[in-house]
Amino acid sequence: MRHWLNSGAPWIWMTAGTVSLSLVAVLGLLLLIGWKGLSYFWPAPVYQFEVEGPAYRQVVIGEIYEIQSVPVRQLAEAGRDVSAMSGERVNRYLVKIGNRERVSLDFITLLEPEIKSRALAMDVAVIDRLKNGKFYGYPLAFVEEGKRLPLSEFPFALARADQIRLQIKTLQETEIVQVSQQLDLLHQQERRLGTQPELTQRRETLEREYRQLELQLFALRQQLDDRALLVREMTGETVRLPLDQVLNIWYPNNMSLMDKVAHWGYQVAQFVSEEPREANTEGGVFPAIFGTVLMVLLMSVIVTPLGVLAAIYLHEYAGKNSFTKLIRIAVINLAGVPSIVYGVFGLGFFVYMVGGSIDEIFFSDKLPTPTFGTPGILWSALTLAILTLPVVIVSTEEGLARIPNSVRHGSLALGATQAETLWRIVLPMASPAIMTGLILAVARAAGEVAPLMLVGVVKMAPSLPVDEHFPYLHLERKFMHLGYHIYDVGFQSPNVEAARPLVYATSFLLVTVIVGLNLTAIGIRNHLREKFRALEQ
């Protein structure tokens, strides 16, 4: 036993076991998040409950969200009538009933002794809407221009409504925006040059074009207002749902397994590709995905050359003196500064000082409305670049230190200058270490939220930082971020229970985005490592 302990084998097994346990814990956490998030999009069965209490009787239609076993004593302390309940514990059902505009809450709780019957509600429909969340009920008919039509006509009307909504979106986000931008530029010219006949004529032409676009918009909306779906809700009352609010409809209890799989894939695709709505508790997260990826890419473009140049100076040019030691200590200390401090620095230096100066020099005609003197995606990328700069510097320095001096001496002996040696020999061989630093920087920056709350991220961005309008990449715009979206939905949502699955889904998506970015960088690093392996040997 003593020989086995002295051989070091126990420590090897302990290390391997600890690493394996850590991997199992990480994978278990990812599986939990993925299961909780992705199961949200599965079409859950809808039940019809007949509930009878001491002083009421009602029919409830909804999805069983959660079942809990609660002590009868706890219910008695809460003021519930427990005289008809036997046993020490009773099941409590949390049922999602939707129909938010008609019922004050998305969820109600039902006690098992009060449930007289429970059955699958066949032919019940789940209707996804632009506002007020999902609606549960029995479709009766389709109304178009006052005429009552059979339900068989509704799928064609819904497809036509989707086309009209797309036309409205294109009209609002492209044509009307272009005219509005031209009017803004014309207003700036009038402020600078004064009123002139040519400018006045141009303004009248643009205003006439704007009014024509408004008329087209009103006509398209009117086409949707004339159509509606008649639905009987759980109280037995017939409700009229305007077609302009209906996005999708499905019958979960009538679906086969393949239908449910297809619907699940469609819902996941919609979640990834659509914009959020209803205070981020409904819809998708595409703007947050786009903003996260674009911000990380901008940060990478900024931090990589800065970190590499700083590492080259410290390792290849700077002497070993007190000043160099001071710089190294500063770099190490920067890695330990709380991220919120970087956010305050970015707000004060980048936004107010640099952005305000840019506005005074290049956008003075727009003042006092700021252009760059307000939080935006550029300042967020710069702030995170400063935050992750120490990681890139240290990693690049370690890569430069691993390159043998004989390689440098051989290049210099053949007549190359020090700059040529660095550019053609040293940096290509150190590129895997540079990519390692970039991977670590991306992994940290993609999950940061605190500094972004000060320098650019918002709850809801009206437009993406990239569009078809010149200059196409709008670095001054605010943006959405997956990390902040998780915080907002999880802690700022008016309905926490309804939003909880979205927190899991968005968290899993954020992890997926980070892993995707890291795998891309790792692939490039491995390619570079294989390419320069012969030189290192």
UniProtKB/TrEMBL annotation:
The chain crosses the membrane at residues 12-35, 285-314, 326-352, 372-394, 425-446, 502-524. This is Phosphate transport system permease protein PstA. It comes from the Bacteria. Keywords: Cell membrane, Coiled coil, Membrane, Transmembrane, Transmembrane helix, Transport. InterPro entries: MetI-like, MetI-like_sf, Phosphate_PstA. NCBIfam families: 3a0107s02c (TIGR00974). Belongs to the binding-protein-dependent transport system permease family. CysTW subfamily. It is found in: Cell inner membrane; Cell membrane. It comes from Photobacterium atrarenae. Residues 196-223 form a coiled coil. It is a multi-pass membrane protein. CDD domains: TM_PBP2. It holds the Pfam family BPD_transp_1. Residues 289-521 form the ABC transmembrane type-1 domain.
